[in-house]
Amino acid sequence: MTRKLPYDIDIAPILEAIGCDKAGAALMRDKARIDRYLLKNLSCGAANILKQDALSIGAELAVHRDTPSCGVTQTDALLLATPAQLKRLIEKEKTQPFGLKKIADRLQSFLKANKQKTRVMGVININDDSFNPASRTKAADVRAKAEKMIQDGAAYIDIGAVSSRPGSDGVDPQEELKRLKPAIDALYAAQIHEKAILSLDSYEPLPLKYALDRGFRLINDITGGADDRVLKLAAEYDAELCVMHMKGDPKTMQNDARYDDVIEAIDDFFSARAEAARSAGAKRLILDVGIGFGKTAGDNFKLIAAQSHFLRFGYDLLVGASRKSLIDAISPAAVGDRLGGTIALHLKAAEYGAAIIRCHDVFEHVQALRVLDALSDAALAN
Q1: Which helix (H) or strand (E) holds 80?
Q2: Fewer CB atoms inside 10 Å of the end CB: C or N, the chain?
Q3: Contact 160, 146 (CB under 8 A)
Q4: Is 251 a catalytic residue?
Q5: Could you give the number of structural domains in the chain?
Q6: pLDDT over 90 percentage in the chain
Q7: Are residues 86 and 145 in the same domain?
Q8: pLDDT greater at residue 166 or residue 93
Q9: Which of 91, 111, 131 is the last residue of a domain?
Q10: Sheet holding 35-43, edge to edge
Q11: What's the pLDDT tens digit per position in 188-237?
């Protein structure tokens, strides 16, 4: 019997079942995957050199039809290469002119990308003005809700007491801690931090320190670590730090949600903030493109589809599109009716590289991810 396999599966288990030599299997695995890289604004000289080098190793580079004669001064290009071909091409371009060494350095960063198995983060909002009314929880009920989410399969529980929906106002740190304290104390007393990773959705050092002293291990900072004190707390407690991108602040972020290139803008942001975090001693980072935080619906869709690009930084990626308004751009619906769109977005985010899905509906997301894994396993079955 002869079977055609899906194009996107990892063939390593098949090669192992066949009994291939390990070294040979590693080579075959690299040859079986063709990756795609979009290169913007190459000079005519760079494009012609890169095309010839790509063809010489069996890869492909699509450029503007007038590039060979330099009928255009610049061109975008689409590179199609296996991982093995990309390694060879990078070595060639390191000695080439026209800015090709810089391109080689960027391509090199993609080779270290490593997607982790996707986990689910459950959201609990203590504040009474969260955009999703169903997520609003009284402090006295947080323990029970967290335990239910963990039972449903959540690996993380993210607690917040300040709304960050578009147009919302900030809250004094003392007031934020006042809201959080009963919930944090209850979770600590019940040792919930031993059952899941507890995350605090805050950018204020006062409540963050209180939570870190009581079992929390993740700082979920929508400002991307703008406050150096937060970076130092992450370093001091060896906590994970989720660095999220936001344009402006929640009050103003949707007033001017425009970018020349949203993917490059966030790539530059991650580079800068990761360097700042490492300089402060915070090394355990998670990156979040900030769906809905100062972006248009089109930007949000681009960023979900671009998850594999951001794997180049070598950190886990988090995506949180749960019941957000970008779903309305495709299928207008009230917040309570956006679960289907939410799961579609999050499954694609996971497929493209997201390691953590932040959501309100834990049971449904865990179920969907398990079914997706079962489909992958079925494709590999003999």
Answers
A1: strand 74-81
A2: N
A3: no
A4: no
A5: 2
A6: 78
A7: no
A8: 93
A9: 111
A10: 35-43, 74-81, 60-62
A11: 999 999 999 999 999 999 999 999 999 999 999 999 999 999 999 999 99
Residue 221 sits in the same domain as residue 343: yes
Say which residues have a Cβ less than 8 Å from residue 152's Cβ, sequence separation at least 6.
Answer: 122, 362, 363, 366
Tell me which residue of 281, 155, 303 sits closest to 229, measured CA to CA.
281
Among 324, 338, 348, 370, the active-site one is 324
Q: How far apart are CA 92 and CA 109, in angstroms?
A: 16
C-alpha to C-alpha distance for 288 and 270, rounded to whole angstroms: 9
Residue 29 domain flag: no
**Does residue 257 belong to any structural domain of this protein?**
yes
Domain boundary among 94, 111, 128: 111
CA 117 – CA 98 distance, rounded (Å): 39
Strands 285-288 and 119-125: unpaired
Residues 78 and 101 in one domain: yes
Q: Which domain holds residue 202?
A: 119-379
Token output for 305: 């589809």
pTM: 0.90
Q: Is residue 24 part of a domain?
A: no
